[in-house]
# Entry
Amino acid sequence: MARPVDEARAARRREEITLAAAELFARKGYEGTTAADIARAAGISAGSVFYYFADKRAVFRSVFERDLPLSRKLVERCHAESDPLSGLLVMVDELVEPAMDSSASGILVELLRQVGNDPLLMRAITENAAIIQHGLAELIERAIAVGVVDATLDPLPAAAWIQSIIDGAFLNAGPDFDPRSPLRRTVLGFLTPPTKESTR
# Structure
């Protein structure tokens, strides 16, 4: 009789492998990272990597697939804020915070190299972007309704623009620069209703 699978243990081990692999992919690139490298970094045997993942591409994809439930939880938490503008700024802060990780720019560059090679990876990236865009758009719409955001803005394109500047922060990523404060100022400047003086 086959031993029952311990789902919680398997999920923990997949997470350990994913996190170890993410650092290697950022530093050595996809092609330069081997299954043996991943196994060594995760503290497991080389064969165990492919017990939990079909192949190396599935490991790479898991780095970005793990964002999906995290993004859903972030949107849910920020939507629970009574002040929609405050919730939006919290969401912006948390989305850009990973840019301060030393591996952020490396994994972004590798994503751009690999996304065209894997339709499932493209699907995960597209789905995650949609979760974030719609989450931001709903907060913008609510903030417009209470009069704290420019009512001439179309929430969905406005959310897409905010996403684009968040993505841009990752291109200059690193532990020596905290992009949250300048990004907040940029987003607030974009969203704030114009004064009578500014429209003359």
Summary: The domain at 7-55 is CATH 1.10.10.60 (Arc Repressor Mutant, subunit A).
